[in-house]
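Lab meeting, item 3. Inverse folding demo.
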């Protein structure tokens, strides 16, 4: 191919991959809505999620000079590794994307009397308005003005919510004085 043909071919391939990813995300949400996501719980080392961070997320953190701190009260946790990894990757990507450059992102694993396991991802940066939290927790809701035309379709937290519900767990968003905490809460 000529250089120009290669450029157009690359654009077509990139666009088709983006479209495939959007379709996959939408189908995942639909499968979650009809309880058709298979769940396989197993014991994994607590640091397993940290040892399997998506390379794109690592690159984004490096580009923004963000650091990652991990702390756990557990040696092992019982989760569905595939579903939890998918949700963790999306939440960590959001923490990186919306977190302040040069800031620290904190990942904590602990338990509470109500929850056998809580995985929290905290970033420093802008808070999320309660109205926006309500919108983004529902599938297929996006406000272009609020999202500032960020990269993506605004499905990340809806997908996290779907993946947690499939595991009989819960997704919680909480504003702090200097940022946001996204938590996955696995019930006792």
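The presenter then showed the designed sequence:
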């Amino acid at each position: 191919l000529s250089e120009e043909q290669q450029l157009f071919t690359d654009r077509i391939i990139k666009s088709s991959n983006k479209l495939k990813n959007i379709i996959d995300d939408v189908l995942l949400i639909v499968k979650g809505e009809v309880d058709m996501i298979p769940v396989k719980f197993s014991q994994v080392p607590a640091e397993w999620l940290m040892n399997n961070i998506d390379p794109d997320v690592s690159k984004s953190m490096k580009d923004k000079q963000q650091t990652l701190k991990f702390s756990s009260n557990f040696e092992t946790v019982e989760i569905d590794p595939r579903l939890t990894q998918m949700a963790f990757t999306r939440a960590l990507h959001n923490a990186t994307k919306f977190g302040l450059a040069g800031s620290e992102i904190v990942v904590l694993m602990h338990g509470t009397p109500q929850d056998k396991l809580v995985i929290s991802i905290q970033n420093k940066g802008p808070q999320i308005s309660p109205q926006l939290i309500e919108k983004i927790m529902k599938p297929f809701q996006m406000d272009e003005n609020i999202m500032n035309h960020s990269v993506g379709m605004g499905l990340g937290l809806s997908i996290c919510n779907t993946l947690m519900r499939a595991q009989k767990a819960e997704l919680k968003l909480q504003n702090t004085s200097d940022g946001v905490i996204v938590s996955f809460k696995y019930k006792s």
